[in-house]
Specification:
The two termini are 33 Å apart. Strands 1, 4, 5, 6, 7, 8, 9, 10, 11, 12, 13 and 14 form a 12-stranded mixed β-sheet that branches. It contains 14 helices and 14 strands. By secondary structure, the chain is α+β, with helices and mostly antiparallel strands.
Length: 456
């Protein structure tokens, strides 16, 4: 009941000077509006940067074969043939932190169309999941090859924008045939432009095809030379007459020619791949994904405890940390600038409340003379200050949200509504009212009733 009377008395005091009350809240309105607008613009920028990080592969893991060693010579990462397409399927099936995975078979050879040719910097045999891993789901033209194409080793491919420009020079490549090491591929789609990556490499200079087609029809082995088209026409002929002391045993069956091998490919039990590209569900789940992938592959490769892995997992942790810290720094900087406005608004409220205490000295003395105690006066002026801040906070929320919406409409900057910022603004408004209204209220409660009644 006492609280209700204090609130009623405080509201009556504020209604006496509505214009002054509105001007007093103006500082809080501007401060809270700035906080809301800055937070929503900062959240939108963070989300946009996070999407850019994802598209560059920040939540992507690369699983490569291990290192081969022979006669004391180490051949480097990827020199062993330990990864299979089944490993990728097992990773996707048994790793909850993994969103999708795609096998990779690398190649580097010449692509020919008509009288033009080009050697793309990236030529990959993979599945349609590769586009999902790299966040490349939108095609500029055509469609993606399917799992059926991968199963049947169909001769279809997707081209990047650079390859389309160099080979077709303004023509639509859809449905046309290109030649890769004397194998005709039909172009079924064109990838959307992605531009250069952080290292300056052209991401649009790329060709994608089913990994089975690239492995069994184009390369037949892993990428061992800088340009496989250079050695494609060379033949390894040996003069058997000069082989006086042959070191090998005669073969029981004659070796098949390249034409026979291409026309009648022999099925093999072990189909190795060069890499497995894995996308974690989020950047925060990358450590969990690495641990789960390690457990799955150790079990599949029958690696005993204590033995080293025959594979290596690479991530983009350094790039993610750098860009995330930059985004957080910019958001915090904007928030600090907006908080300065709130402090200025709080100082304005303190100033007006001190003026109000001075003007209402006789009223305070009269109330204390009829029985009001110091804590009642303190409560009244505190409620007035908090009410001014809360009203200003509500108006500031509307102003800040409206301002961020106008920024999105006219400037097309990314914005994102932040419920946390709205709730924090309400709490900060109340805290400002208490912090900056306490001194005037305390000063009013400490007035001597006799001196207050004598005040003119």
């Amino acid at each position: 009941m006492k609280l209700y009377r204090a609130v009623k008395t405080a509201m009556t005091g504020l209604r006496r000077n509505p214009m002054r009350a509105m001007l007093t809240t103006l500082g809080i309105v501007i401060g809270v509006g700035a906080v809301i607008a800055m937070m929503e613009i900062g959240e939108g920028s963070s989300s946009a940067i996070q999407k850019s990080i994802t598209s560059m592969g920040a939540n992507v893991l690369l699983v490569v074969p291990g290192t081969a060693t022979s006669a004391g010579v180490t051949f480097g990462v990827g020199s062993r043939t330990t990864l299979t397409p089944g490993d990728g399927e097992a990773i996707l099936r048994d790793s909850p932190a993994v969103r999708t995975a795609a096998p990779i078979v690398r190649a580097r050879t010449q692509v020919v169309y008509g009288n033009r040719n080009w050697v793309p910097s990236t030529m990959l045999g993979t599945t349609a999941a590769f586009l999902d891993v790299r966040d490349w789901n939108q095609l500029a033209e055509g469609e993606v090859f399917t799992d059926r194409d991968v199963l049947n080793a169909n001769k279809v491919c997707l081209l990047g924008q650079t390859l389309v420009r160099e080979l077709f020079q303004g023509e639509s490549p859809i449905g046309k045939e290109i030649r890769i090491k004397n194998v005709l591929f039909r172009v079924v789609g064109v990838l959307s432009a992605k531009g250069a990556n952080m290292m300056g490499s052209d991401q649009d200079d790329i060709l994608l095809a089913p990994w089975t087609t690239v492995k069994y029809r184009v390369t037949g082995s892993t990428l061992t030379t800088a340009n496989q088209s250079v050695s494609s026409g060379s033949s390894d002929s040996t003069n058997t007459l000069s082989n006086v002391y042959p070191g090998g045993q005669p073969e029981l069956y004659p070796e098949r020619s390249a034409v026979q091998a291409a026309d009648n490919p022999m099925p093999v039990r072990f189909a190795n791949i060069d890499q497995i590209l894995v996308a974690a569900r989020s950047s925060e789940e990358i450590p969990s994904a690495i641990q789960q992938i390690t457990e799955v592959l150790r079990e599949r490769h029958r690696i005993r405890p204590g033995e080293p892995e025959d594979f290596t997992i690479r991530d983009m942790t350094e790039m993610t940390k750098t860009l995330t810290s930059t985004t957080a720094l910019m958001t915090n900087l904007l928030l600090c600038v907006a908080m300065i406005s709130l402090v200025v608004g709080g100082v304005g409220i303190m100033n007006i409340m001190l003026v109000s205490v001075t003007e209402r000295t006789r009223e305070i003395g009269l109330r204390m003379a009829v029985g009001a105690r110091g804590r009642d006066i303190l409560r009244q002026f505190l409620i007035e200050a908090i009410a001014l801040c809360l009203v200003g906070g509500a108006m500031g929320i509307l102003l800040g949200h409206g301002g961020s919406y106008l920024v999105w409409v006219f400037l097309r900057w990314p914005v994102e509504t932040s419920p946390v910022a709205i709730a924090a603004s309400v709490l900060v408004s109340a805290a400002v009212g208490i912090a900056f209204g306490f001194y005037p209220a305390w000063k009013a409660s400490r007035l001597d009733p006799i001196e207050a009644l004598r005040y003119e």
